[in-house]
TrEMBL record:
Top-rank taxon: Bacteria
Organism: Pokkaliibacter plantistimulans
Record-given protein name: GST N-terminal domain-containing protein
Family annotation (InterPro entries): Glutathione-S-Trfase_C_sf (IPR036282), Glutathione_S-Trfase_N (IPR004045), Thioredoxin-like_sf (IPR036249)
Boundaries of every GST N-terminal domain copy: 22-101
SUPFAM superfamilies per the UniProt record, alphabetical: GST C-terminal domain-like, Thioredoxin-like
Pfam (any one): GST_C_2
């Protein structure tokens, strides 16, 4: 089913989950790109949840170890179990709470979506290093290095391929909103912050992500945070 150009897609995803059942542990909204992924996925699919926010700057290790021995955020807590790592959390949400609707409908599309999500999850080290997520900042005149430019070109290529194939079904990578969009949401934020020049198709997709009430709510919270992590500032 096609969605409107922007906004909520919640109506398509009925989970019946009680907010009391689900807790997502995240880091600073301004900086924690991995936290944004499951947070955005839950918000966009309308699944209610509690949030525990930790500072990546202060006593992080000590605090996060209460939730996950992996020592990183995000962590999802459900039915007495901790699920860590953004992709494992996304898979869990799709399977346990969305009856599989977190992924596209056809096997072919699911394989494609899983491929680009895996590529995102394990790739683009130069983009990550040179252009750390910093939602509230807009940096003009930033020039990515050659390797980061290569990462950017590859991501734009992925967005093009997906949007060209699925534009008739809605504004997301696979038409309707899926986990793939949540996994690429921090890239949309980075492209905006670092003012990456984009063609119309890629700019349009970036804007689809940025214009959602979910992203806007994350951004408003990021702007309200006072902590500055020097290591994340370019
Ligand atoms: N592959 C993990 C990466 C998680 C990650 O690196 N999280 C960062 C915050 S964005 C973190 O916890 N950093 C703190 C640390 O490494 O001490 C995922 O997908 O969740």
């Amino acid at each position: 089913m096609a969605n409107g150009q922007q906004g909520s897609v919640q109506g398509e995803y009925q989970s019946g989950v009680d907010a009391a059942e689900l807790t997502l542990v995240i880091g600073n909204k301004n900086y924690s790109s991995w936290s944004l992924r499951p947070w955005f996925f839950l918000k966009m699919t309308g699944i209610p949840f509690n949030e525990v926010q930790l500072s990546l700057g202060t006593d992080f290790r000590q605090q996060v170890m209460q939730y996950s021995m992996a020592g990183k955020v995000p962590v999802l807590l459900h039915e007495g179990q901790a699920i860590w790592d953004s992709l494992a959390i996304g898979e869990y949400i799709s399977e346990a709470l969305l009856a599989g609707k977190g992924w596209p409908d056809s096997r072919h599309q699911r394989a494609w979506a899983r491929s680009i999500v895996a590529e995102m999850h394990s790739g683009y080290p130069n983009l990550r290093r040179e252009m750390p997520m910093n939602c509230r900042r807009v940096i003009s005149g930033f020039q990515p290095g050659v390797a980061a430019q290569q990462d950017i070109r590859r991501i734009v290529e992925i967005w093009h391929d997906c949007r060209k194939a699925h534009h008739a079904d809605g504004p997301w990578l696979f038409g309707r909103f899926t986990l793939a969009d949540a996994m690429f949401a921090p890239v949309a934020s980075r492209f905006h912050s670092y003012q990456v020049p984009l063609d119309a198709l890629a700019a349009d997709y970036m804007q689809t992500v940025l214009n959602t009430p979910a992203y806007q709510a994350w951004l408003a919270a990021a702007r309200a945070e006072e902590e500055v992590l020097a290591a994340e500032e370019v």
